[in-house]
Design brief:
By secondary structure, the chain is of the alpha/beta class. It is built from 9 helices and 5 strands. The chain has helices at 14-25, 32-41, 45-56, 62-73, 91-104, 118-132, 139-153, 155-162, 175-187, and strands spanning 3-7, 29-31, 82-85, 110-115, 166-170. Bound molecules: adenosine-5'-diphosphate.
């Protein structure tokens, strides 16, 4: 169980859980959102390219995102496993990831979906906006991100479910409780 994808709407807690699972499982958490934000902060070429999309709550074009993930997965620390947080997010990215893994001769082990009701998600993101000041946590941009998720990413749940890879976990509750549910979902074979 070492090649994992985390799916879930904005605010579901993917980033938090990806880091905790990374510590527990000893494999790197790869967050496309974190990598993009770091590039914006460091004013790299990539950062300049993606800033307008992040600020608007829209997806960065697949060509840019796919190339970045391809590079990241080729790093030695990802050879034996990884937790992808925030990728894939479109059906084109699913195909692209399939291709990257096929070339490396490996397969995804599990796709973990973190669910949460929409009111709770808005509450969390509003709170995070006050604490972290992320430019994409304003009410209007959050609404756009939720809409983009529903249109472009929610369909991935069915794709991975048909492949028998999906496990859905309730994202409500204390952080360690959710981590325990995710570890349980990794341990379970049936589904
Ligand atoms: P959240 O899941 O809370 O919306 P992320 O930190 O995962 O936040 O992503 C923030 C932003 O980074 C997204 O709104 C989008 O602009 C960009 N981004 C992250 N991952 C992808 C991806 N796989 N494809 C396109 N854009 C992405």
């Amino acid at each position: 169980m070492s090649r994992l994808v985390l799916l879930g709407p904005p605010g579901a807690g993917k980033g938090t859980q990806a880091k905790l699972l990374s510590d527990r499982l000893g494999i790197p958490a790869i967050s496309t959102g974190d990598i993009f934000r770091a590039n914006v902060a460091e004013r790299t070429d990539l950062g300049r390219t993606v800033q307008e999309y992040l600020d608007a709550g829209k997806y960065v074009p697949d060509s840019v995102t796919n190339a970045m993930v391809r590079d990241r997965l080729a790093q030695p620390d990802a050879a034996d496993g990884f937790i992808l947080d925030g990728y894939p997010r479109t059906t084109d990215q699913v195909r692209e990831l399939d291709d990257m893994l096929a070339v490396a001769g490996v397969k995804l082990d599990r796709v973990l979906e973190i669910t949460a009701d929409p009111d709770e998600l808005v509450r969390r993101l509003t709170k995070r906006a006050q604490v972290e000041g992320r430019s994409d946590d304003t009410e209007e941009v959050v609404r756009t991100r939720q809409q983009v998720y529903a249109e472009q990413t929610a369909p991935l749940v069915a794709v991975y479910s048909e492949r028998g890879l999906l496990r859905s976990v309730d994202g409500l509750g204390e952080v360690p409780e959710v981590t325990a549910r995710l570890l349980d979902a990794l341990a379970s074979d049936a589904g």
